[in-house]
Amino acid sequence: MPELIIPIVKKYSDEAGLNLSDKQLMQLDKYAEMLVKTNEVMNLTNITDDEGIAVRHFIDSLTLVPYIKAEQARVGRDDISIIDVGTGAGFPGVVLKIAIPEIKLTLLDSLRKRLNFLEEVSGELELTNVRTVHGRAEDAGNDSSLRAKYDISCARAVANLPVLCEYCLPFVKKDGAFLAMKGNVEEEEAASKKAIAVLGGRKESVDKFLLPGTDMNRSIVTVRKIHPTPAGYPRQAGKPSKNPL
Fold first, then answer.
1. Which residues of the chain are under the pLDDT cut of 70?
2. Which of 68, 69, 136, 227 has the fewest CB atoms within 10 Å, measured from its CB?
């Protein structure tokens, strides 16, 4: 049973001005408990200690909250739509949903059993407006029900930035944003210029910082969608990673 999750997350969230409620902290605690229990029979994460879950999963995901809130303010709506591409065990998507309940969340992953777990989590935590989609990003990005339907797409360290752009930008509406959560990003940042331009984006900002409570480098790259992604992108499954733009 997680015991340290709440005080660690509360300390960071208070310092960051996120003002998580007792209910939200308890939801994160329950999420951690379910993660650890399910991880005994299914490989969801290599990080299973309280501090690791609190810092490297929850706090790391929460660093995206100010970007989501800024986008809510920019468009003048709280119920913005977000797709978490390659969500895995639900990071950052489920944590964002707990922290900002008004968002409409889609969790995309290629493994059905991970989505089954996330559906259990959503039910247990009484999260509403959460949809799971089973599939690869390359296929989902060409699905007319998903393509260009989201205010924000986000992903956490799923692939190198040029590849990640091809996975994520097709989901974003014109004038929406792709938020990439990365570690050290200098080389990838330079290599992604062509991909961003081809896929209809414009790099808006790159914010670099240390993950709170650690010496781990983190970067959040914001790419604004300024043109529709051309037909033919994303390319068929496997192509973006084997032959990045």
1. 1-3
2. 227
